[in-house]
């Protein structure tokens, strides 16, 4: 990598029909950064995240990933996605596969790695997220927190360079939030580059290197979480924080 | 007891008819599944021309009686030196394919969009995600209506008697007219159909249970 940033977004615009969801977004995420995107629903933070792994395609602007400007015309987006892990609000585990099979699926069938190695790696990852005893269980038998930890292991199985989290705890019962956040915290401590859309201000404060407040498709304010939460410069940020904290 | 004697006297011939009915149905449904899958993909392709092709096919099948389709396939295909058996099989497959296409389309579209996205986010191509993630779940969901369609196809195969296939129904009417006793043989053949449908239902149930093991 020629530059120290992992992913750089320049003047990104995205519309759904008449709805202009992202307006001239600029953001640079360096290696090992943990970035939290906050903002009200409809502010565009999820769409921004989904643009970062090309589940949504930009209308204009640049997305530069590991020093390369990625365009759908010139790049195999599937190859790029292999390096960008994603964790969804509603987990989206594969219900017809066991926990272990969920984690093995992509390395086995996308990367076509040998099964023995894939299995060993998957078991290692499940151990890491504390679910070794659930290997042969189907997702329907898991709690929400367990599902989300499997989803994290599944994404990590591809050995991504960056992990994207789209409101990973919003669908969880309050008592299950902690186990997912601590898994994410561990990941952050290991130096994983992470972009997290979240409403968990405590997590943002504790783990994020910096936070981004979005409103109405624009980035309003960027800063260290402590500064952003305690002394926001913008009135809109202050209003938002007053309503959620 | 008259009926029972008739049943016992004729069962070797009826069993042969039953075997033919069974073969016609199994082969036709097997082919119909591929036809159905193909047209289901056309329907969800989001390409207008392909969708139209599927729509026209489904319109043709739904809009004409099966017996007409069977006669058209029979006279059309036997003229090309294709056997009576295969012309009926292809006619039944053509017919059932349209209904199965709609079953598959519905079951594929009923799978949460997040499943495809999760697959894509792991680097899968759309095709691989369809094959590994969507289709296995869609097949499972399609099993109950598919089983229903199998049973319909089984009963519909009786129309092959109109072009002289010696399947169950034809055996019954032939006996009926030879012995001037339609009623007895129609009751007898009804029992054979019931047994066949029962066997089919049990098979479908077993497959369904097996596929549902993860729930």
UniProtKB/TrEMBL annotation, chain A:
Residues 7-241 form the ABC transporter domain. The keyword Nucleotide-binding applies. Gene3D superfamilies: P-loop containing nucleotide triphosphate hydrolases (3.40.50.300). It comes from the Bacteria. Pfam families: ABC_tran. One of its GO terms (molecular function) is ATP hydrolysis activity. Keywords: ATP-binding, Nucleotide-binding, Transport. SMART domains: AAA. This is Amino acid ABC transporter ATPase. It comes from Sporosarcina globispora. The lineage of its organism: Bacteria, Bacillati, Bacillota, Bacilli, Bacillales.
UniProtKB/TrEMBL annotation, chain B:
It comes from the Bacteria. PROSITE patterns: ABC_TM1. GO terms for cellular component: ATP-binding cassette (ABC) transporter complex. It is found in: Cell membrane. It is a multi-pass membrane protein. GO terms for molecular function: transmembrane transporter activity. CDD domains: TM_PBP2 (cd06261). Residues 18-204 form the ABC transmembrane type-1 domain. Pfam families: BPD_transp_1. One of its GO terms (biological process) is amino acid transport. Keywords: Amino-acid transport, Cell membrane, Membrane, Transmembrane, Transmembrane helix, Transport. Belongs to the binding-protein-dependent transport system permease family. This is Cystine transporter permease.
């Amino acid at each position: 990598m020629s530059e120290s940033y992992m992913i750089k977004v320049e003047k990104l615009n995205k519309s759904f029909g008449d709805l202009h969801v992202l307006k001239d977004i600029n953001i640079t995420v360096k290696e090992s950064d943990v970035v939290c995107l906050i903002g009200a629903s409809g502010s565009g933070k999820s769409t921004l995240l989904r643009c970062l792994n090309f589940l949504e395609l930009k209308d204009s602007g640049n997305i530069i990933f590991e020093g390369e400007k990625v365009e759908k015309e010139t790049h195999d987006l599937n190859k790029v996605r292999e390096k960008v892990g994603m964790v969804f609000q509603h987990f989206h585990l594969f219900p017809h596969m066991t926990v272990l099979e969920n984690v093995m699926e992509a390395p086995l069938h996308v990367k076509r790695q040998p099964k023995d190695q894939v299995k060993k790696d998957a078991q290692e990852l499940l151990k890491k997220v504390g679910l070794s005893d659930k290997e042969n269980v189907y997702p329907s038998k898991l709690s929400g927190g367990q599902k989300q930890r499997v989803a994290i292991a599944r994404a990590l199985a591809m050995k991504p360079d960056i992990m994207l989290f789209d409101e990973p705890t919003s669908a969880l019962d309050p008592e299950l939030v902690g186990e997912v956040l601590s898994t994410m915290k561990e990941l952050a401590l290991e130096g994983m580059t992470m972009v997290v859309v979240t409403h968990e201000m405590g997590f943002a404060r504790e783990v994020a290197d910096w936070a981004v407040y979005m409103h109405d498709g624009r980035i309003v304010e960027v800063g260290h979480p402590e500064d952003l939460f305690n002394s926001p410069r913008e009135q809109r940020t202050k209003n938002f924080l007053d309503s959620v904290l | 007891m008259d009926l029972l004697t008739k049943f016992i006297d004729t069962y070797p011939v009826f069993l042969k008819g039953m075997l033919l009915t069974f073969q016609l149905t199994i082969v036709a449904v097997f082919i119909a599944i591929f036809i159905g899958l193909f047209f289901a993909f056309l329907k969800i392709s989001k390409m207008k021309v392909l969708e139209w092709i599927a729509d026209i096919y489904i319109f043709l099948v739904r809009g004409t009686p099966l017996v007409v389709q069977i006669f058209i396939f029979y006279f059309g295909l036997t003229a090309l030196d294709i056997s009576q058996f295969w012309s009926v099989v292809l006619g039944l497959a053509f017919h059932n394919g349209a209904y199965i296409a709609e079953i598959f389309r519905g079951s594929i579209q009923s799978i949460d969009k997040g499943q495809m996205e999760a697959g894509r986010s792991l680097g899968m191509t759309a095709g691989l995600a369809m094959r590994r993630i969507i289709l296995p779940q869609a097949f499972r969901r399609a099993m109950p209506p598919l089983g229903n369609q199998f049973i319909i196809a089984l009963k519909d195969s009786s129309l092959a008697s109109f072009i002289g296939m010696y399947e169950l129904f034809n055996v019954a009417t032939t006996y009926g007219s030879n012995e001037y006793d339609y009623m007895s043989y129609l009751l007898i053949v009804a029992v054979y159909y019931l047994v066949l449908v029962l066997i089919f239902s049990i098979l479908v149930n077993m497959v369904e249970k097996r596929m549902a093991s993860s729930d």
